[in-house]
Amino acid sequence: MYDVVIIGAGVVGGMIARELSFYNLKICLLEKENDVAMGATKANSAIVHAGFDAKVGSLKAKLNVRGSQMMPQVAKDLGVKYINNGSLVVGFNEEDEKTLESLKERGEANGVEGLKILNREEILKIEPNIGKGVTCGLYAPSGAIICPYDLAVSAIGNAMDNGAELRCNFEVTQIKDLGSHYILRSQDKEISARYIVNCAGIYSDKIAKMVGDDTFCVHPRRGEYLLLDKECGDIISHTIFVTPSKMGKGILVSPTVDGNLLLGPTAVDTEDKGDKSTTVEFFESILDIGRKSVDSIPANKTITSFCGLRSVGSTGDFIINSPVKRYVNVAAIESPGLSSAPAIAEYTCQLLTSIGLSLVKKENPITKRKSMHHFREATLEEKNQMIRENPSYGKIICRCEGVTEGEILDAIRRNPRPTDLDGIKRRTRAQMGRCQGGFCSPYVIELLSRELNIPYEKITKFGGESYVIAKETKK
After folding, report:
1. First to last CA, the chain
2. Is residue 302 located within the same domain as residue 389?
3. Residue range 77-96, pLDDT digits in tens
């Protein structure tokens, strides 16, 4: 019997698990995929928004601003790279400038500090490669960038360090209320819990209906992205947005914390909760719009494209409530969900307390976690010392990203433990460079096979039937 079961191991579910793990509770995190951070968390803009876009008085506004304020310390505690690079929303005419003035007023009402309208000359001083048609911009100094799946993996790992359990490949198909507790069933397993937190992303309305709540629905909004090589990472230093529309914040151009350049997302509403395909049509659209904001974006430096699905709710705001006893919805967490995640965790714990969960702090909870990239970030002297103590750190496996065998072994042996190629990619960046795993994948498969005692040909790309090896060709 668990005190709390959290359904969905994305960044929001992970942050809630971490927050609850500081208390004397038995916690379990359920994930229907083969690894954590497999939904919207692995495919989004990686932006910590300042908080000027959300409607005044909404949960989005309140939790975005609070989450943005909390994020630097959270990132530091979890060993996650965070860069306060600031953001610019650019405009191209007088009408856009009026929109930016409204955004500024809204942001100030939300509690965002330091907002300022800049003219073209002022923008050029901080962004020399800004688009030729840009005439004005809203500058938000508190805007930042982070790695969303790094944050989720680290938060869940920290929760597990404190005793929380993780069960992957557990798709909840039925929830039964027995009065004092719930039974959660998958196809071949079941567990019991006193309280449930629903963080199931685009499937959160499906989970809610299992407990009798049909007050909202969620549909996916497709967002395609382009990722450019690291040699493009210094074209700009700030995150550049265009003036927003009812479909979202539009196509952004942003550096990433790892030095690449990111463009996207598109915004297309759909009913297909499994469609993450990418298209030539939107590849060209992303580039065309991105080049209006920023000059000198070279299409031939694109190393990959990907698509994410945002959870768009029917209410227009985050849905965080308790419609039935001992149960909490944390649903419709679209943008700015990543920015809000620490505050959502805080808010959810307060809500759980209000519906009867007793929170008694542990005497010495673990609140910090060593960076998953500690070797890469070490000095030359520190690296040499680590190699002397463990020679596996001296063997490069991924040449594009400079990832060593020691880092991959650390990832495999550390909670939450990966069992597939994409799990290693999210933790170490092996396979994320120019060749996209063309050279290093066989070595990563070999390490996974050896460490997990799984046959080489049974290693998958992302779980399920995604086998990489078809058959043995040589004896």
Report:
1. 49
2. no
3. 999 999 999 999 999 999 99
